[in-house]
Amino acid sequence: MAGDKLKIYIKPTCTTCRKALKILNESDTEFKSVNYFETPLTKKTLTQLIKNLGMSPRELLRKNSPVYKELGLSKKELTDSGIIDLMLENPDLLQRPIVVKGDKVMLARPADKISDVFE
Q1: How far is CA 61 from the centre of its chain?
Q2: pTM recorded for the entire structure
Q3: Over the stretch 27-49, which tens digit does the pLDDT of each residue have?
Q4: Which of 2, 17, 22, 37 has its CA 20 to 30 A from that of 116?
């Protein structure tokens, strides 16, 4: 993941996101932090992130999120596009933080996994 500036999609109140940001700040890595609650992702961007993660949209869902339970997503059959639409409407459904460097994307869970971007 060398060469391109790093971007990290976060929720500021998320403990894992705060840990990942701390690791980045301590490494003196130049990065841009994007609070996707204040700056919502577009469907095109989220679809590309998921594709580059090599995951299905369902795999990126936060299954322990209250919204996930409220919407009964474990029991619903939804298309990938439908899941992405729900993520855009309810950003708490997204696992985070998502780290982007060039066309490489990773889910930094646990937060220390973010160290992989330095290799």
Answers
A1: 10
A2: 0.91
A3: 888 999 999 999 999 999 999 99
A4: 37
